Every structure is written in C-alpha cells, then in structure tokens.
Amino acid sequence: MPDAKSERRILRFMQMLEKSPAVLRDTGSSDMKLLEFTGSRSVRCESSDIEAMLRSGSIVVSRRDDLAEVRLTDAGQASLRRQRSGDVAGQHRQIREAHVQFHGHPHRVTLNDAESPLAMLARLKRPDGGAWFEGAELAAGDRLRSDFEHALLQPRVTASWDISHVARTGGQSRAVEMADHVMAARDRVNAALTAVGPDLGGALVDVCCFLKGLEQVERERNWPRRSAKLMLKTALGLLDAHYDPGSARKRRSRKILHWGSDGFRPSLNC
Prior knowledge:
Blueprint: H1 4-19, E1 22-26, E2 32-37, E3 42-46, H2 47-55, E4 59-64, E5 67-72, H3 74-85, E6 95-102, E7 105-112, H4 117-121, H5 135-150, H6 163-166, H7 174-177, H8 180-196, H9 198-209, H10 214-221, H11 228-243, H12 245-252
Antiparallel strand pairs: 1-2, 1-5, 2-3, 4-5, 6-7
Helix pairs in contact: 1-2, 5-8, 5-9, 5-11, 8-9, 8-11, 9-11, 11-12
C-alpha cells in the first residue's frame, strides 16, 4: 500500500498525464524512472510509483517507435474525477459549463455530458472511422429532450408540494393552470414526434428523453440485436429534417450524374 506521501506523488503524476502522455525512460537506477513530457519537461518518478499506478489500472505503458509511452487510462481519469468531486459518483460525471437561452435571456448552466446516452453515442464510429451520428442529428436529439423537459412530461417520482397542485379542485382544468411556455413546449414535442412517426418517435423518446440505452430499447421493443443504432440514426435524421429542413436537405442531397440504360458506356471525351 502506498503511503500518504507516495499517494500525493502519484496524484501529481496522474494530473500531468491527464494533459498529455509521457515517454518512460531509464535513469540508470532501478529505483528511479524519468517521465518525459511533450516539450522539454521531464519529471523523475520512483519505480514503485509507476508499479502502483500500473497495479491500480490508472496508467498503461505501450511501445511506440521503440519508446515506452505512458498514458492515463479511463480508470485513471475516473479516479481523478473522484478525487476532485470528493464522492464516488463524481468519477462518472463529465462536467462542463455552457450558456443557454431561456425565455430570451442567456443563462450559465452546468452540464453533465455523461448523463445522456446521446453523449455516449457520439463516440460510435463507422467502418471508415467517421462518426456514426452527425453533429446535427445529436443536436436535434438534445433539442427534443429540452422541449420534453420544459413540457413537464417527465414522470413524477416524488410528491409535489406546489400549492397550485395542492389547492386544485377535481373539476378544474389542468390546461388552464399551465404556463404558456409549457403548452408551447408540448406543441413542439407533439409536432416533432408526428413528423418522425409513431414507431421511430417512441424510440426517440426512450433514448433522448427517458435516457434508456440502446440494448434496453432493443429488449423492450423486441428488435434484433444491434439494430437500435440504425433505427435511432434514421429517427434522428428525420428529426433533424423537421427542425431544420433546409440544412438537412443540403447535407443529404446527392447529385445525379447520369441516367444510363442497359449497355450504357460513359464517354471518355473531355
């Protein structure tokens, strides 16, 4: 077990590796190594600290061009997030600051990118290495989720202490009590799901609004394995076309070069 002093050194090394990988070099002593970072910065590191980080899975050492390269692993990044947040749940968060418009006014908000399955889906790749989902498709999914939450359509899991709900009589119309922006958000959600269709619209609500994973959607809807990814891409494409028809049409347009009948051969004349 590393002592407190060693733990502080290891934390410092991991924070440095979080910014960039390093080359591990020998110093001529079996008890000491050298971490050489990009540029001219080098840090001496005890071999026991390297071994401790390897045992915990915080780093990985790989060979690259006859050099030993040290990189921070996902487990190491989670450990750093846990150290910063002070709780176990913090290692699973990906926090960032953003500015959003609400009722015509800018607001600074804190977002957790790891909360939504869309953030995880953004990492999926096509066989050619490109992103499986386009940025506009993911933005359309986030827009649907925002409208869904503003429309107060999320199921309630706790008691409501809102005085308007407590004092409401049974015959009073709920629609009268709702604010205009809530009704407008519901109209936007209904219009978006109508444009996508009932089957694909239900999958969009499951993933974008109820934050279900693709495997759970496949099980609940009896879809074949690995089919939800394709169905969701189709649904997000239709949703993007609904929100921004002009831009979506340009991105998906394909120019017809030539119609050819049987036996057609292209001309080689320029």
